[in-house]
Structure formats: structure tokens, C-alpha cells
Specification:
With about 325 residues, this protein is of the alpha/beta class. Helix content is about 45%, strand content about 20%. It is built from 14 helices and 11 strands. The protein has helices at about 10-15, 25, 40-55, 75-85, 115-125, 125-135, 175-185, 200-205, 215-220, 245-250, 255-285, 295-305, 310-320, 320-330; strands at about 30-35, 60-65, 90-95, 140-150, 150-155, 170-175, 190, 210, 230, 235-245, 290-295. The strands form 2 sheets. The protein has a 6-stranded mixed beta sheet with strand order 7-6-8-5-9-11. A 5-stranded mixed beta sheet has the order 2-1-3-10-4, sandwiched between helices. Strand 6, helix 7 (about 175-185) and strand 7 (about 190) form a beta-alpha-beta unit. The protein is globular and about 60 Å long.
Length: about 325
Amino acid sequence: MTTTTRTPRMTTALLLALGLGSPLMAHAESLRFGGNFTDDHSSSRAMEIFQEQLAERTNGELTAQLFPNMQLGGAGENVDQVASGAIMGTWIGVSYLSRTVPELEALSLPFAFDSREDAFALIDGEVGELLDEKLAEAGFTALGYMELGFRHVTNGVRPLDTIEDFQDLKIRLQPNQTHLDTFRAIGANPVSMDINEVYGALQQGVLDGQENPYSIISTKRLDEVQSHLSDTGHFYDYIVVVANRDKFESLSDEQQQAVQAAMDEAVAWQRHTAAEEDTAARETLIERGMEFTPISDETRSALREASQGVVDDLRDKIGADIVDRVLGELES
């Protein structure tokens, strides 16, 4: 599925010019959503489902215009555009909102998640409700959480067999303080950088490596500039779909319900699809020539132990209540 180049607003204008526009279509409104994921990423395809569902559920009264693949700028720019009301919403890695809503960093506890099922149980429960409230206080309405997935390290220097192999590697991370602190704790040299700059930085040798879910490594073609792949799984990451709260609340109750129902359909599809594509993406990377080195239980234990001080720091930073609530739900 691809986004049509003829926008619903253009179609409406043409109908009205011909005297064929209905009163319903005369009041049609188009909601713009920007994203940094490529067109073929499962989240972008899910947004196309949202687009179809929204038009169907509102009989064309509400439509969505989608701008994936950094058409409206990088991840940070998309967040700023939503905050200012320049666009209705964005689908974004949740870490890009952690500077605005620090409590979101509680989702980034190192080596805390054992499965995607645990991750979704957490975000669909009381923790998710609490974070939605914090997002609302910052001017955003959370419409849903998709899977970005477990994050894994790639690099162009050496296989990662032991914790010592991480020493001094210049690794790109998202702009999330907990992520950065975790990689400092395990001996790496982390660098915060927007995703739109990563390929070039790796190609030029400015970075030694980066970390992302397999799907992003594959769709961004990072295997072209990286040789070593591992399965560190150091964080589980979500994609959050957020809207400008004021713009969302300006919709009628029926329209808000249609937007949410359409997004629920899209999120359910994406979660299922992302799970299927995760292993396939790893195999694709290996087939393209990356050397895959699984992280041993011994090394994983050493990485977890080295990074546990980050959890204590996070308690001091954003409050022990939210951190302990996350840990408690994951351990239950």
C-alpha cells in the first residue's frame, strides 16, 4: 500500500468546483502525520491501515495524510512539529519524547525485558496509563504503542564476544540519557545522533557502530556500512503514535472515537507483523553478509551487572515510584 499523491483535500476541491461536493465532503478535514521510518517498515504500513480505517469509519469526513521516511524532517523535528501544532501527529521511537517526558525513560531499563509479551503487558496496563497522563500534561495525546523491538548492537570493528569487546567503541544511540548511561557503564563511547545522520557517519568512520532493532538495521540498509551483528537485546523499544493534544481535542467526540478505533486496528496489525518480521530481518542481514555473533549467557550476565547502577540513577532522576512499578510488573 502506498499513500496516494492526490490528497483528499485536492479531491474535495475538484468536486466542489464541479458542483458535485456533498455537504459532508465540504467539511472534510485532513490530519497530517509525519514519521522517520521508511515506507516499507511495518509501522509505516500500519499507518496506511490507519489511513484507510479512518476514512472508512468517518465516511471521508476525516482523512489522514502520511509523510514517512523523513519527508518532514528527522525524528526530533517531527516531535517539535507535533508540539507546535504544525502537524497532527507522528509515529516515533518513544525515546525521542523522553526529553519532554522524562518518565518515559522508565521503559528503558537495561536488560529488563525477557519477551515482547512482557513489554506489551506493561504498556497496555497501569504503567501505560500513567505515561499517557504525563504525555497529556506535556501537550500530547498518545494514540497507541507499536513494536520497535529489542535493540541490538552492530559495529564495523570486531565481534562482540565479551564485555571487554565493547570497550571504547563509538556507538550511536538515540537521544535518551538512560541509553547513553548504559553504554558508558559497559565501557563503550556512546554518541547521541538522529537516525537520518547515522548511515553517513558510519560510512565515513565517524562512528564504529550503532544499535537498533533488526528491522531498522535492515530497512535502513546499515549492513552496507557495518560488518558485525549481535543479539544484545539490551533494551526493548516502543513506537508511540502521538497527536497534538489541542488539535485532537478540537475534534468531535465521534471523530476522536473514530481516530482511536482506526489506530487500534493499525497497532494490532503492526504488533503481529513486527513479531513475524523480526527473525526474518536478522536472517536477511546475515544473508547480505553480516557476521552474526550471539551474546553468550556469561557475557549477557556481565553486561547486566555492569549496567545496574543506571537503574539506581534513574530512580533518583525520575522517581523511584515509576521505576519500581515497572520492575514490579516485569517481575510479577
